[in-house]
Each structure stands twice: as structure tokens, then as C-alpha cells.
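REQUEST FORM: STRUCTURE PREDICTION
Request ID: SP-0412
Submitted by: Lab K.M.
Chain count: 1
Length (residues): 168
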Amino acid sequence: MRIFVGLQPSDSFRNALFTLQNQLRDAGVTGRFLEPDNLHMTLAFIGEWPDDITHLLPGVEKPFPLRLTHPGIFPEAKVLWAGVKPSAELNLLARRVRNNLSASGIPFDPKPFVPHITLARKPSVPNGLNLSEISVPSTLMTVTDVCLYRSDRGENGMKYTVIGRNRL
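STATUS: Completed
RESULT:
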């Protein structure tokens, strides 16, 4: 099975992300936008792994807030994203996830952790549109758990399903 570790947005955070996706569409941005139920923040991408590793997920030591910042693009990955304000707590959680995986011999994508939530793949931005001018909905989410996701390819693209979680 294809798996990754991430954070599941709260309903209000997911609604804000969906609003941002619609604002980007209205501004003329095209691409393969993720369905609202698929929105998440990846802490560590593992890929193919045969076992459920929920028991390796670290707990959140103390709830902490997440706040959206601005949209952007990773051109090399062809990904349109919503930035998430970095914090010591978020960086520590990502580091703990990766340390647990490493200590257990589970390989994961070693790219540095950059707090973001993918909104669309293969985006096209109209000439002259400055993404930093797009108004990001003001919302907070409190992180209380870490999720193990399964990624399945369907006829309408990828479907991400929470298969395990470690709550506070």
C-alpha cells in the first residue's frame, strides 16, 4: 500500500482552503485541483510499504495552532500550494515523525519539510497574476493528532484516506 504521514485539516480549515481554491479559479488559475476531502499537510511521504505503521506515529505533546499564509507554486513539482505559517511546534512534530520512521528503518522522501497544503497539480497561472495578491481566508486550526494516510489511485485521480491516527 502507498502511505504517508500527515495532518488532517479541521472542517473550518478545509472550508478556508476550498474558498482559497475558488478564489484562485476565479482569478483564472487552472490545474487539477484537489477535492476538499483530499486536502492535507504531508509531514513525511513514505510510498509503498506493506504494513500499518500507526504505532510509530508520535503524539502531539501539546496542541498548537496552524495558520494559512499565502499561495505559491513549486515549479519543479508542478504544485500549487497554500503556505502554512512555520512554527517551532510544527517543525518539531515533523522532525519527530521522520526520526521515528528512520529509527524503524522505514524509508521516506528526505526532502526538507516545507509547511504547505497542496491545492492543485499542474497549475497554470495567467500572465500578470501575482499569487501574493490573492486574499487568504483568515482561519486557525488546532493540531491535536497525527494521521497515517493511504493513497489509492481511482478513476478520478488519487484518493487519500486516514487509516490510523495518534491523538493527544
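NOTES: The chain has one domain: 2-167.
Reviewed by: T.R.
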